[in-house]
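Table S4 entry, Calcineurin-like phosphoesterase domain-containing protein.
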Amino acid sequence: MTQRRTVVLADLHLVRQTPRDVTADLARFVEAHRGARIVVAGDLFDLSSESPWMPRPRALREALLAHPTARAALAEHLDRGGELWLAGGNHDAEVGAPDFPVALAEALEVTGEARSRIRTTPWFFREGAIHLEHGHLYDPDNAPAHPLVVGERSLGVHFVEEFIAPTGAHRYLQANDQTPLSLFLSAFTWYGPRAPYVIYRYFHAAIGAMLKSGPLYRAEGEAAVGAAAMERFAHELGVPRAMADALVGLGATPTLESAARTFTRLYFDRVIATLSMGAGIAALGLGARGTGAAALGLGALLMGASWASGHNRYAGTVAERLAESASRVARTTGAKLVVFGHTHREALGDGYANTGSFSFPRAAPGRPYVEIEGSPEAPRAATRFWRAVA
């Protein structure tokens, strides 16, 4: 990677409704890195949150046509000798499909050698001691049954398609580690009169997730399909098959495989406790003291047990899981630098970097990305921040 300046960004979640300031900054970023290798470590697109049932080539084309400045910048980047590498993420797993580079080239209207500078992977890139992937494989809520199979939807993608897409509540893409109560209260602040519908769609999606979890989770055949594709994937990527197999073993077990884990992940224990306490208070008000006291007591007991396991059981866990998984990837494969995205939180440590989200910089001083320095055998990562021009 020393032959080209290499920058890595992730989690743009590009759709037709992406704010213009995001795509304007993306265009300027690409223009400032002419001739470089621009790697998007997953979720360049988020077609499932806006047009989940639209054919992917059409959805891709419409997303890019909605942002002509960014589209033109990417096309010119390729035409002038730059490279564009895309890794599939949980929101754009189709990036890894064999025909995706052709569809992207057609949407960008690039031809000839420029097309050959588009490189995609359904899972990870590897060059020397550098390992690049989105990282959702290590997050139970978003892990696929197999990283080479676009199959049964994860819990996270289920919510995107069944909750965010129909409501347009895209701000929840940044708030998936909060408790339901805080999310419900935020709905009134963020969406005003539409809040009741947003909350209704949340419960609709949550109940739907329960109805497809545990024994109803239909991904049991995907591991075999993925295993059959591993030899070709490893050969095309230029890595040993044993390395790819070992990395599959490091992946998280999808939450939806267990009805119990899905139940607790969605905080249904607190929902039931709240309903029980509400019913108990109502019963007491109607004079049914025995029934009311029992329902109120049961609800309070359930709520106490739930809170005993932590007020917010999942806050920060994804970032922690990915940092730990990066260490395991390094130990298993000999990588000296592992770069992930997915968490929307930038990180920089010994042998691990996370790009954060280019579109959702949180409190960062600019839009975060990672620059890879050194050589493929002795790489270093530096966190950078792209600042918009006023």
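The mean pLDDT is 88.
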